[in-house]
Amino acid sequence: MSDPAIPAVPLPGSSSPAEPALAALPQSNATPVTEGAPSQRLPELDFVRGLALLGITIVNTFSYFVPALAVVTPATIGPADWATWWTSVIFCQGKFRPLLALLFGMGMASRSESTAREGHSFVWTSLRRLLALAILGIAHIRFLSDGDILLFYSILGCGTLWFMRRSARTLFWATAIIGLCTILPYLVIGWGEAMFSSDHTPTITPQSLAWSPDEVTLQPDRPLREQFVDLLTPDQPSDVRFEWRSAELERKIHVHGPFRLVAELRMYIFLLQFTEWYDLLRFGAEAACFCFGAALLKSGFLRGEHPHWEHRLVWLGLLLGLPLQVLAGAFGRAVVVAPPGTQSPYVWMALLVAGEQLQMLTGPLVSLMYLVVLRRFALSGRVPGLVHAVTLLGRMSLTGYLALSFLMVFLADFWGLGWFGSLRWQAHAWIALGGWAIVLLFANLWLRWFRLGPLEWFVRSFSYWRLEPLWASTSPAPAPLPPSTSHPGDVIAPSREPAPAPLAGPGTPSASETRSAP
Known about the structure:
Elements: H1 21-24, H2 43-65, H3 79-91, H4 96-118, H5 122-143, H6 150-160, H7 168-196, H8 206-209, H9 224-229, H10 241-256, H11 259-272, H12 277-298, H13 307-337, H14 345-380, H15 384-395, H16 397-412, H17 425-446, H18 454-464, E1 496-498, H19 511-514, E2 515-516
Helix pairs in contact: 2-4, 2-14, 2-15, 2-16, 2-17, 3-13, 4-5, 4-12, 4-14, 5-6, 5-18, 6-12, 7-12, 7-14, 13-14, 15-17, 16-17
């Protein structure tokens, strides 16, 4: 029965707490499940995870093709580019990373129960799993992306491991405490920076506008740090010309190589996340999402025991989350249209901080709305073919995330097509959709013959310290997967919302957003 003070939202498949549509959801070698069974894989969450992979790819694609230290002016983008930017700001940036963190927390909580029943040590099994993710994350940073999220997930997973065996009540309290410890410093430091650091914003002068790409020469044999130092303007180190020159150097490294400089550049940008308070505090927010996702699983939310809260979350996302995201986008557009140095530095910094904080603080409201609506749609039994296909991608979203990263780097870097720095914003969206469709097809073909994605098989085998079965059963009625191989959150999906991005402000994916992912 829904709350009398809040009108019920007609969610797909919300006719009754028990969802018969689950029986119609294709399982493809997965254990038959009932709604909310905590130790079994929930196909509706795989569906959510598969679509979240598309959302985060739209955000991340921007960072694969645009320099991290670029300055974008109105002359460089047209109406279609602005439309792409607005769509990304309102519906994607800052929404899918929290959603994936919620799903990751649900998976950790599920394993805390199943490993105990099977006689395995939850702590050691989880630590080995997180170590496997860290190994993949380090390789990802080295060879593909400076915005990797797998390494951060492994670190945050270790920090929140103790909470995963606690009750839902304890997890809700942990979410509140971690959230407050993140939000309060975020607000204080952000506005302190706006008030006292405004004089250090980059400036635009007639001299800086007269720069030419020919001023930047790539020197493959010199250390990268020395080449960046050479780009500083002696009379004005904070001149925006340094930003443009740095972006040009980054473009030439990606387009011409060699690999040594590309790898050095990736590590340089990756480490920038540890020098910015904004990105460091984001990790606290993700730890809170881990705990909140685990609390939702243990509270019976996924068993349909709190339908009134589902309606409340949808209304919060619609009436509060999305409108405030539009406001954050308006602040971000004002920052882009009036670059630093063309208006009062205090006004510029205030718009920048307000937009970033609105996006970060209200984005999770939209994430929770997505979780409810997409989960209900999967349970409704509508468009079963599409639901089945996306669900299979969700089952191997770790492989899908890294496969998408490989595709994007192939299109952007010198060893592939070398498109880095040459595409408009609208092209990024089409590339994200095309790449996701390719990975969707690959996942559906792969799982015809195999039980798990290749990287999921590696992580699970490493976790349980034994070789898990990989080939799918050829019998007419395949046996259920062992409990140890069927968890709601076995596969983590990417989240890579960017490093210092071209657009200062809420419209620009943050370093941790654009250049990361699981």
